[in-house]
Design brief:
The structure holds 2 protein chains of 2 kinds. By secondary structure, chain A is mainly alpha-helical. Chain A has 16 helices and no strands. Chain A has a single domain (about 20-380), classed as ABC transporter involved in vitamin B12 uptake, BtuC, CATH 1.10.3470. Chain A has helices at about 5-20, 30-50, 55-70, 75-100, 110-125, 130-160, 165-180, 225-240, 240-250, 255-260, 265-290, 300-310, 315-340, 345-360, 360-370, 380. In chain A, helix 4 (about 75-100) runs parallel beside helix 8. Chain B is an alpha/beta fold. The radius of gyration of chain B is 20 Å and the shape is globular. Chain B has 11 helices and 14 strands. In chain B, strand 1, helix 2 and strand 2 form a beta-alpha-beta unit. Chain B folds into 2 domains: about 10-20 and about 25-130 and about 275-300, Response regulator (Rossmann fold), CATH 3.40.50; about 135-275 and about 310-335, Rossmann fold. Helices cover about 40% and strands about 20% of the residues of chain B. Classes of the chains: A mainly alpha, B alpha/beta. At the A-B interface, helix 4, helix 11 and helix 13 of A face helix 1, strand 2 and helix 3 of B. Chain A: It is a multi-pass membrane protein.
Chain lengths: ~375, ~350
Amino acid sequence: MTEHDDLKGVNERMRSLMARTTHGRDDFEDLVIVPLFAVVVALVFGALIMLATAVDIPTIGRSFAALAIGSVGSLNAWSETLTAAIPLVLAGLGLGLGFRAGLFNIGAEGQLVMGGLAAVIAGFSLDFLPIVIHLPLTLLIGIAVGAGYAAIAGILKATTGAHEVISTIMLNLISFELLNWLLRQPWLQREGRSDPISKSVPDSAQLPQLLDWINPNLRLHAGLFVMLIAVAFIWWLLFRSKIGFAFRASGENPSAANYAGMKASFVIVLAMATAGGLAGLAGASQITGVLGRASPGFSAGIGFDAIAVALLGRSHPVGILFAGILFGGLEAGGRQMQVAAGVSIDLIGIIQALIIVFIAAPLLVRAIFPWGFRRNGRKEDAA
Amino acid sequence: MTFLSKISARTGLAAALLAGSVMSASAFSACQVTDTGGIDDAGFNQTAWKGVQDAIEMDGEVEGRFLESQAETDYEANLNSLIEGNCDIIITVGFLMGDATKAAAEANPEQQFSIVDFAYDPTIPNVLGQVYATDQGAFLAGYLAAGMSETGVVGTFGGINIPPVTAFMNGFVHGVNYYNSEKGTEVEVLGWNPDSQEGLFTGNFDSLDDGRAFAQNLYDEGADIVMPVAGPVGLGSATLASEIGTDELKIIGVDADQTQTDPENADVYLTSVLKRMDSTVTQVIEMSKGGTFEGGLIVGTLENEGVGLAPYGAFEDSVPEELKAEVEAVKAGIIDGSIEVGM
């Protein structure tokens, strides 16, 4: 078997996987019931795993209570949930858009790093600007750099056929090392520190805190509005604009899109760049809203979690919004779970992974909950 | 509590916490935020947590809770969750948590904090820093390693280039140099240059693979004793040593006595440089509970046994008596000031 055949096979499998994540947005079952059940089953399995590791039943009950309280049970819980959701939703929107255009972008993490890094640099070096210019400019620079970085993978695919899965993974690694290296450069490293940590972003480039007048510990920031605007914009872009139609058409059937006069290579590069821009914005909003500086690993796996968010949200902007809030809630609630019930926070990672397993295997969910679905099922699931 | 015996150490911990948290409402609550690497890292975080456990054991009214940081971005969020959680004292573990702890302490002046590995200048009234003269302990380890090395090359590497890590590496190199100047030997140290403050770093505190790869590189360059200063990363180095044999490669543990915390590979540890975070953490909890807490600094040294050298474990018989006596003499020299650690 030649390398070409291999890649072709990978491509086909990838396309069918993505078809499943994007297909039939009008189908209520696929869009709502499967994800809902996936979450429920994952939580049940999480409880079983706790049982298997000899956690007793009252503690399991307390864990789930703590999970609920820690995610939605107080103002602080909501603040933490939404704070965690903001970058997940932003990066998830980009990934979902990529899925719809037939691109499996694994590079959100790297694009997020690049966007965040650019935001830090723009933040401390343009500190003479007033906030009304400085903050939007910082975010825009984050978007542009993220978009440019993702476009590399798009251009490689459009011109040489290099598979975006491979190239984005490699670009991730490059971005991590670039970050580590840059953080040691004197012009970027904070004065008086020997460890890799960047200078701080001045107030004029920081997304304002929304709730600190109630309690200084509430971290929710104006990135919330950025997130909501992005959701609306991507919805418009995908379903109301010409270019969005081209994205979707290329994703559903690249040959047909090509015959219809859509330039495949242009669509690929543009879709990658848009996805990267959103990931870059996620990084920039983390930097300007939460962290205020860059350090190694500031991306914290958000770009990878966002893949899960995009899959769970069925690549639909509104779905991604809810999926992101759910994952944000799991993260915030997971901390409470560890504090209040002493159950390891790693369990949250397991639950998140299980959700994705069940999303990726809708047949399994249908088999577990046969009564939740119409008798005759859908054609593609029967196949 | 009979079920405790049946279950693994980790869930045992959880169960102990549960038992703790159902006690009387007047209980004193000590909360800890760990650094990345996890509470079961056989070193840094685990030692600090042991301090809380010891306090629980000594004093029935103390209860403890912890929160693991998965990434550096969790520090603030974790502190936030604990501020919500009615803790009498919040103990943060690790230099990297310095900024987050400071911010939380300033936003919550009524809350008592203590941080391991960070000294604030100027001090913050509600934060007590715990720092350690680990270069003293590592100096002894360097002296010992130089005396034990057959190839004349020893190595070290760190997690991230931050003072609490490089203190070990500085002390180690100075210890080797001291041996060289005393004995006229030329034992070489790979992985750290105390003058330029540059050396080998994995860039993280959690990849066991990196620990293995870095130890392999040092071994390939001729090192037969390696001191990894990177929390659980060093466990990867220990696995390598166990595979290729301790005749070829020995490991010097850090933070805890790693023959105890990493029993699987106990026989590869020549010794461990102890950083007794457990004892200072317990001390801080007692101070806080007894009402004598105030912001400032506690420093662990060889003299007050805040740092030290672990027993030689499997190498008890192979370390020459003469060398053991010399190490003791060097220790006494450091304590009475006749030997300067930072030369």
